Amino acid sequence: MRKKDCFYLGKIAKKFSFKGEVLIYLDTDEPELYENMESVFVEFNKDLIPFFIENSSLHKNDFLRVKFEDMESEEEADKMIGCEVYLPLNMLPKLEGNKFYFHEVIGFEIEDKRLGIFGKIVSINDSTAQPLFEVENGAVQILVPMIDQFLVKIDRENKKVIMDLPEGLIEMYL
What is the pLDDT of residues 86-136, one digit of tens each? Predict the structure, then answer.
């Protein structure tokens, strides 16, 4: 499994018991969706390794208490602390309406109600306080704030993000 075909689920935060159990911090708004998984991919040395789950249960809202198959000791659990956990993209719950996953809209055209199509979304910058669409328009890069009030529609069928942006925002780039 390649990392680009997966999504980040969380990180193994700490061991839980002397029997090799660990706590995975789940980076999600809906941890209950991941309570009964059969397996996960754990990143070791930039490789994703499948681990099968013997049993799991939610622990204090954001954590999943996991007993992996064939992991019986604290020493084995110690080696996993800090490792990132991934699942295949096809395991993401489908979103509808104007909710979307960041990876889902990469490559979509972006359209303003006033100006029409002004570029293609090439990536999303979520390292700032406000996530931004990074849009390519020829050689020009346009940064568009991902603000719910600006978002009109996610048109999955036509691969478009339709927005109603403040006058002047796009023009200052072009």
Answer: 999 988 888 888 988 888 999 999 999 999 999 999 999 988 889 999 999
Query: What are the residue boundaries of the structural domains of the chain, listed by start?
Result: 3-91, 102-163
Please give the structure tokens belonging to residue 132. Answer: 């931004």
pTM score, whole prediction: 0.71
CA dist., res. 68 & res. 89, Å (int):
21
Q: 134 with 124: CB under 8 angstroms?
A: yes
CATH 3.30.420.40 applies to domain 102-163: no
What is the domain class of 3-91 according to CATH?
mainly beta
DSSP 119: E
Given the structure tokens 């390649």, which residue do they identify? 2
Asked if residues 42 and 83 have their Cβ atoms less than 8 Å apart, the reply is yes
